[in-house]
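User: Predict the complex with manganese (II) ion.
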Amino acid sequence: MNFETFIDLHTHSNASDGSFSPSQIIELAEQKGLSVVALTDHDSVNGIDEFIEAASKKGLVTAVPGVEFSASFQNTEVHILGLFVDYKSESLSKMLFEIRENRKKRNLLIIEKLRALNYEINYDELMATAGNDCNIGRPHFARILIEKGYFTTVQEVFDKCLKRGATAFCSRVLPKPREAIDEIHKAGGLAFWAHPVFRRDDEKHYVRKAVKRLISMGIDGIEAFYTSYTPEQHKLIYDTAIENNLLVCGGSDFHGRNQPAIELGTGFGTLKVPYSVYENLMVHKATAQVIT
Ligand code: AMP
Ligand code: MN
Ligand code: MN
Ligand code: MN
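Assistant: Here is the predicted structure with manganese (II) ion placed in the model:
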């Protein structure tokens, strides 16, 4: 019998700003019948050991080690996904550690700004929500402010306080895309531009222009399947990949209960990332190894 299976190459665990542990993500992936799942925590590979071990127990799900970098790019931020990275690479760990230290400094500044705006919030509450202090992200701030009744939705907190330009926004020191891409390559991984059309209105123009810059920095592919894409956006990214001879990846950006509308694998319900996407990446990796 020949039936198609689906995959998810973009997920977050409680090693960053997701609410599920790495092994719970594997368990959920098994329940949903996904064949391949990548763990791509923000600025951290600390969950990968547990993730791979959990997957190897039953052997139903192939676990891909990954990471998601935020990078500063032309007055804005782009996200770079690394897939198939050697998560034990010392150089990668060192870079991620520095990024997390800068994140901590940023978080302290956000607390100060929020308190000055009369929102009661402290570091201990953030620690309790996030589980440890190296993975605190803006979604944790949002959760606390909602629990305290200041807001009703995550989006509302971001719009009022946390997004770029909002009252409590603080930037953090970020790597350049080239640095993230180089580090992913050094760790043997493939580098992808994540969700290129996330929260933008000038998307066509932006994608076509920005992709050229990212190609010059060594990007291998772009995320062509993503929870929030409209069919037009999916087509835009897919066409951009083909026109530029880029690889494609795709996933839900699952965050567990921290973004409850997004389901593992299926996103808002209709996302389907075919197994052939993974197969193609494997073929590419095998060919690249033969050539180099
Ligand atoms: P941080 O890593 O602390 O800067 O937080 C980034 C995370 O916050 C992203 O991964 C999203 O989950 C969420 N986020 C960022 N910008 C927005 C926004 N404008 N609206 C809602 N959520 C956002
Ligand atoms: Mn996130
Ligand atoms: Mn992202
Ligand atoms: Mn993500």
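The chain has a mean pLDDT of 94.
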